[in-house]
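Let us practice reading a record.
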Amino acid sequence: MAYKITETCDACGTCFETCPSEAIIKGEPRYSIEADKCIDCAACEAVCPTKSIVQV
């Protein structure tokens, strides 16, 4: 299962810094996750202050 970043993302960068597989892509107005790079570790979900990362 991969993860995705929802509309509530405020682009704080916490997930980007945490991702061990570099699957997070910086963006405006929010970040996104490259599903093919995501290793399903849930590190990003655990640190997201806005709870904007969900499993799909």
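A brief commentary: The chain is about 20% helix and 20% strand.
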